[in-house]
Design goal:
single chain; 103 residues; mainly alpha
């Protein structure tokens, strides 16, 4: 990770108003604090990204879920057609006529 450095203008102001030791120490402390904030923010962003990914994977349908649903829908369609044919006497007569079993 790239570390943050204070802009030159801020360093100049610190060195102008403070002793060299204090200005250097203060600029190091500021840079370390900013780097810590950046690092923490990056860690939190990664954690949130993983949480959202987990939540979405639980909520959204996967390809295997869709394949199972498609096969179930085919089964329900076949069962529905069979029930209609079996329970409807006109459908049975029509099928018999088509197959040449009934005149």
């Amino acid at each position: 990770m790239q570390s943050y450095q204070l802009p030159h203008s801020i360093r100049e102001e610190l060195f102008k108003d403070l002793t060299k030791e204090k200005a250097s120490k203060l600029s190091d402390l500021l840079e370390n604090s900013i780097n810590t904030v950046f690092s923490t923010a990056k860690d939190i962003a990664i954690q949130k990204k993983l949480e959202i990914k987990d939540e979405l994977s639980k909520e959204l349908a996967s390809k295997s879920d869709l394949a199972v649903l498609k096969s179930e829908m085919k089964l329900y369609f076949v069962i529905t057609i069979c029930v209609i044919v079996v329970l409807n006497k006109d459908a049975i007569t029509l099928i018999g006529q088509v197959l040449g079993l009934v005149k």
